[in-house]
Backbone:
C-alpha cells in the first residue's frame, strides 16, 4: 500500500491530484539523489518503470488503491524508487509535464524487515511524507512430508546373472512428474544415496505441493529407483513405482503402505510385448501434508537474523605489507574480504533486532602469540560497523600479525555457544560466515562438531573462499564432492543441511555474485530449523503510527526509517531505527512481496 500525507498545494484553486510511479534500479547502479536523499525528478537511464498508480483527485492525504506485485528474493539487494507527481496536464503521459512532489529510494529487504513491513520517508521540504507498506503473498504454504524405504532390491548385473545381495549397490530414488503436454516424465527431486544396502531407508524430506503436482493431487507421480555409481559416473536404473500424492497420503493414514517395485523386461527377440518384473518392495513410512510457515512470518514476529563473521588471518593471505596480500587495503577499491563483508552486512542488517552481530579473526598472532580465535568487534549492526571493525584490526592494529595455521573448530564452538545461549531469551538465527584463504588444519574435527550442532543450534555455516587457491578439501566439509549428506567420522549423516560454500574464484571476483550464491539456501535452512524444533512464529509486530510521528519528522528533516545507500565502504547510513527484513524462497518457492 502506498499513501502520502500532507502533500503541498501546487495549484492555486485546488489540492494536489497526486499519482505515484515505481521504478526498479538494476544491480550495480544507484539512483540520482540530492543531499537529503530525495531522488531526481526524472528517472535515470538504467531505471526500469514498473507501473503507475491511479490519480487521487484533490486530496492532501491520498491512499492509492493500485498495488504492485514484486518478486522478493532474500539473497539479493533489490532497489526501487517511488516518485510522486501532481497531475498538471491531464492525459499527458510525459512526466516532465507534471509537478514533482518528491520521492523515496528503498530496498525490498528494508521494506519487508521494518516494523509491520512499513516504512515512512519524507518527500521534500515541509511536512509531506510517504508511507509504503508491503504484504507477503505466497503461491502455497502446503508441503508433502515423506520418508521412503525399500526392501530386498534386485539388480541385474548381466543378461544371465542376478543377485539379491550386492556389495556395491548404492540406491537412491528420484521423483518424476508427468508432463501432460508431451506425456514425458520430468525429474523434480533426487534423494541421497544409501551406500552398500539393498534395503535402504532414506532420510525424511519436505517438498512443496506446487512443485510436486501443481495443486492437482491426482497428477501421476513416478518414484524411480537408481543405483549410484561414482566410479563410472553411470547410474543404473533398478525399477519404479507409479502413484499419486492423493493415494500416498490417504494410504499412509492407515499404516505403512507397501508397493511393488517393478521393472520393464523385454521378451527375447522382441516377438512379444514387454512385461513387468518385481525387483523389490517400496514402503511409505510417512506421507502427510503439512503447512509450513514462511521465513517472513518468523521475521515479522520479531525473530532476529544475527551475523557472525570469521576472518582468516593465517599466512595463506600472504604478507599484509605487500600489494599481493589478500588483506591489502586501498582508498579506491575494496579487497575481497571488505567487499564480502559489505555485501553480507547490507542484507543482514535489514533483519537485525538489536546489536547482535560480531567480527572474529582466527589464526592471527597477537603480540607474537598465535590466537586461534580473537574478537575484532562485537555489538554491531550495519555493514559500515562491520567494515570498521575489520579495518581497525587488520590495518591499524600494530600488535597484529599473520599466524602459521587456521583452525575452524574454536570459531564453531564460539558460534554454537553464543547462538544456543541467545535463543533461550529471544527468537533468533545466526549466520556464521567464514572467509578463508586456505585449508583448515582441523577439518574432520570441525565436521564432527557441525553434525552435533545441526540438531540444536539455530545456525548456518557459510564458507567463502578468498584468492585463487584450491578449496577441494573445504568442499568436502560441505559434502559437495559426494551425492550424499555430510557425515561425521562415525558415518552418521548431519541432521539438516547447514553448510554452504562458494569462492570468489568461481565468480571472477564478483562480490555480488558470491553473496547471492552463498545465501540462496538460507531461507530453507532457517525454516527447517524452526519447524523441526516445533517453534512457531510470533504475532506480527504492528507498524508505527505515522500520524503521531509526522510532526517530529518535519522538524528533524529525517525519515522514520531512512534508507542505506550501497557503494563504497565510506558510504554512511542515516537511520533512526533498526528492524528486520524478510524474503523467502520457502522450500524451493520464492516469496513474493506485494506493495500496494
Residues:
Amino acid at each position: 500500500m502506498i499513501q502520502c500525507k500532507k502533500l503541498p498545494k501546487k495549484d492555486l484553486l485546488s489540492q494536489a491530484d497526486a499519482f505515484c510511479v515505481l521504478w526498479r534500479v538494476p544491480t550495480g547502479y544507484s539512483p540520482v539523489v540530492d543531499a537529503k536523499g530525495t531522488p531526481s525528478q526524472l528517472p535515470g537511464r538504467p531505471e526500469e518503470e514498473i507501473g503507475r498508480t491511479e490519480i487521487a483527485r484533490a486530496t492532501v492525504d491520498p491512499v492509492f488503491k493500485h498495488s504492485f506485485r514484486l518478486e522478493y528474493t532474500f539473497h539479493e539487494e533489490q532497489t526501487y524508487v517511488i516518485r510522486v507527481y501532481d497531475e498538471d496536464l491531464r492525459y499527458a503521459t510525459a512526466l516532465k509535464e507534471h509537478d514533482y512532489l518528491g520521492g523515496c529510494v528503498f530496498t525490498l529487504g528494508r521494506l519487508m524487515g521494518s516494523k509491520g513491513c512499513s516504512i515512512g520517508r519524507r518527500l521534500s521540504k515541509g511536512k509531506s511524507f510517504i508511507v509504503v507498506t508491503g504484504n507477503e503473498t505466497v503461491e502455497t504454504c502446503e508441503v508433502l512430508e515423506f520418508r521412503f524405504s525399500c526392501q530386498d532390491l534386485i539388480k541385474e548385473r548381466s543378461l544371465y546373472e542376478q543377485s539379491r545381495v550386492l556389495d556395491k549397490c548404492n540406491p537412491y530414488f528420484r521423483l518424476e512428474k508427468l508432463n501432460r503436454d508431451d506425456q514425458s516424465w520430468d525429474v523434480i527431486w533426487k534423494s541421497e544415496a544409501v551406500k552398500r544396502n539393498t534395503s535402504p531407508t532414506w532420510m525424511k524430506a519436505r517438498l512443496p505441493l506446487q512443485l510436486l503436482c501443481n495443486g492437482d493431487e491426482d497428477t501421476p507421480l513416478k518414484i524411480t529407483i537408481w543405483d549410484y555409481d561414482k566410479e563410472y559416473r553411470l547410474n543404473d536404473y533398478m525399477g519404479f513405482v507409479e502413484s499419486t500424492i492423493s493415494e500416498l497420503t490417504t494410504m499412509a493414514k492407515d499404516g505403512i503402505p507397501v508397493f511393488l517395485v517393478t521393472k520393464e523386461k523385454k521378451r527375447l527377440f522382441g516377438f512379444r510385448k514387454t512385461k513387468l518384473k518385481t525387483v523389490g518392495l517400496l514402503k511409505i513410512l510417512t506421507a502427510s501434508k503439512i503447512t509450513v510457515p514462511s521465513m517472513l512470518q518468523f521475521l515479522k514476529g520479531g525473530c532476529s537474523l544475527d551475523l557472525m563473521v570469521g576472518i582468516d588471518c593465517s599466512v595463506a593471505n600472504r604478507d599484509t605489507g605487500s600489494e599481493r596480500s589478500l588483506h591489502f587495503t586501498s582508498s579506491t577499491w575494496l579487497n575481497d574480504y571488505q567487499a564480502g563483508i559489505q555485501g553480507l552486512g547490507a542484507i543482514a542488517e535489514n533483519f537485525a533486532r538489536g546489536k547482535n552481530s560480531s567480527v572474529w579473526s582466527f589464526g592471527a598472532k597477537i603480540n607474537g602469540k598465535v590466537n586461534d580465535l580473537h574478537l575484532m568487534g562485537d555489538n554491531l549492526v550495519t555493514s559500515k560497523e562491520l567494515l570498521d571493525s575489520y579495518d581497525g584490526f587488520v590495518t591499524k592494529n600494530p600488535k597484529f600479525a599473520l599466524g602459521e595455521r587456521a583452525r575452524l573448530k574454536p570459531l564453531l564452538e564460539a558460534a554454537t555457544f553464543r547462538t544456543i545461549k541467545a535463543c533461550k531469551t529471544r527468537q533468533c538465527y545466526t549466520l556464521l560466515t567464514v572467509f578463508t584463504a586456505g585449508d583448515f588444519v582441523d577439518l574432520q574435527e570441525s565436521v564432527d562438531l557441525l553434525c552435533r550442532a545441526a540438531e540444536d543450534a539455530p545456525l548456518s555455516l557459510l564458507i567463502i573462499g578468498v584468492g585463487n587457491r584450491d578449496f577441494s578439501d573445504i568442499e568436502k566439509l560441505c559434502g559437495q564432492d559426494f551425492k550424499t549428506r555430510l557425515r561425521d567420522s562415525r558415518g552418521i549423516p548431519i541432521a539438516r543441511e547447514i553448510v554452504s560454500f562458494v569462492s570468489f574464484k568461481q565468480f571472477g571476483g564478483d562480490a555480488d555474485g558470491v553473496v547471492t550464491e552463498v545465501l540462496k539456501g538460507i531461507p530453507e535452512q532457517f525454516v527447517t530449523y524452526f519447524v523441526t524444533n516445533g517453534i512457531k512464529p510470533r504475532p506480527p509486530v504492528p507498524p508505527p503510527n505515522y500520524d503521531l510521528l509526522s510532526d517530529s519528522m518535519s522538524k528533524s528533516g529525517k525519515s522514520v526509517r531512512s534508507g542505506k545507500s550501497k557503494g563504497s565502504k565510506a558510504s554512511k547510513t542515516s537511520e533512526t531505527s533498526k528492524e528486520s527484513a524478510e524474503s523467502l524462497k520457502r522450500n524451493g518457492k520464492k516469496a513474493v512481496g506485494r506493495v500496494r
